[in-house]
Amino acid sequence: MNEPDSTATPASSGVAAPASSALPPSISLIVPCYNEERNVGPLVDAIVGTFCPERIPCEIVLVNDGSSDNTSGALAEIAARDMFDLPRRHAPLSIVTIDFSRNFGKESALFAGMEAATGDTLCFIDADLQQDPRIALSMYRYLVSHDECDVVAAYQAERKEGKVLAWLKERFYAFFNATSDEIELPSDMSDFRVFTRQVANALLSLPERQRFTKGLFAWVGFNTHAVPYTVNERREGKSSWSTKSLFKYAYTGITSFSTWPLKILKFIGSLVAVLSTLYLLYVLIFDYLIFGIGIPGYPTLVCLILLFGGLQLLAIGVVGDYLAKSYVESKQRPLYIARDITRRTY
Ligand code: UDP
Ligand code: MG
Fold it and tell me: What is the reported pTM?
């Protein structure tokens, strides 16, 4: 495993050394990459082309999340480049690459990126160019020019996905906000954000293993300014989110921020117990004692037994999910393992 190299400089970039005059706050752009071999190069060029002419000190943190394609080779190629298309007087540019030992998921990649980032401000941006670096620049400008603002978050002005998926996502946010114990999650807000070092430190201080970043941003608080943006088409490849993984992510979100599923089970359990006792009393008192009717109906009994058996299993399942969550947390495993980290400054 390579040690991080913080001193390497390009051999012969042919560009002037970074200007030493007062520079604006630096930005670290954190890019989670899963099977993005053909996207990372163009993304890095787009970021460099956007931030460097503005003389903003810029660090690009590329996290290869155990891709099965050649993303790792693409990152190595970027890290080995001797020059970028930089203007003559440019602010420092750093490229950091982190290569995970396997696929740990986007949330872990974002966390690793934050840990490695050294910028005064940080930005989460996807590798597939669906989020334009020029929008990141305008978000950065807003953040640094508004003292009261800690986070600038982009939300999709219009959703480009199918109607069913958009409806399901809308329902998810409504359900999440109705049931969450402590936070309100604005709908449509993406992970595409620029935020201060203080916010990053707050996020890094949360030790949980199963992370739902949108919820964690809401949980740590701070002043958030929302800006609309239009998401581009993915440049190459396809989204790694299947319907199943979206449902799983939604379930993680709800169970990470709410104990409502446990409460509703308690409520259903109590309601069913009260109703069945009332029904039993009714049958015994009216049918049996007053009207003297023999009590027929074993099918009803079978149905009720099956219904309650099912309800009990469901309840045990949900309780088990919470138990499993605390089991996973109690193991305190790291969020990721990196097999290689490199850093290069231009
Ligand atoms: N990603 C990742 N690990 C994963 C899945 C995705 O780092 O296990 C990255 C992916 O490379 C991209 C970002 O997360 O930069 C968003 O993923 P994707 O484009 O597949 O999601 P969508 O834009 O469809 O929501
Ligand atoms: Mg995408």
Answer: 0.76
